[in-house]
Design brief:
The protein has about 110 residues and is of the alpha/beta class. Helix 2 links the parallel strand 2 and strand 3. The longest helix is centred in the last third of the chain and has 11 residues. The N and C termini lie far apart (about 35 Å). It has one domain: Oxidized Rhodanese, domain 1 (3-Layer(aba) Sandwich). The protein is about 35% helix and about 15% strand.
Length: about 110
């Protein structure tokens, strides 16, 4: 099971420019609309692992944080479990997702 990271912990990592991979497991449409700054979009699905390896190219011991829309969304939980099963050793789940980020009053990035 993936570790869980809080909104405050994630914000601190972004502000401190920590070296980690932030993965948005939602659809490309959602990502274009809004995402947490610095995130890359790799939608959860049958080819998630293949897409992650191709686009992120992260070493197995890299810190990886996965999120989706809210604490009721399961996409990031499933994506995190996929990474752990594939041998990634430092995977966290930001369970509050976009809703938690918004509730905290933090800014989003968008592609539009």
């Amino acid at each position: 099971m993936a570790k869980v990271i809080s909104t405050e912990e994630l914000k601190k990592k972004i502000d401190d420019k920590d070296d980690f991979y932030l993965i948005d497991a939602l659809s490309p449409q959602s990502f274009e609309s809004r995402h947490i700054p610095g995130a890359m979009n790799i939608p959860n699905g049958p080819d998630f692992l293949k897409q992650f390896e191709k686009e992120a190219g992260a070493p197995k011991d890299a810190e990886i944080i996965v999120y989706c829309s809210s604490n009721t969304c399961m996409a990031s939980v499933q994506a995190a479990e996929t990474l752990i099963k594939a041998g990634y050793t430092d995977v966290s789940h930001y369970k509050d997702g976009l809703a938690g980020w918004q509730d905290a009053g933090y800014e989003f990035e968008s592609k539009s």
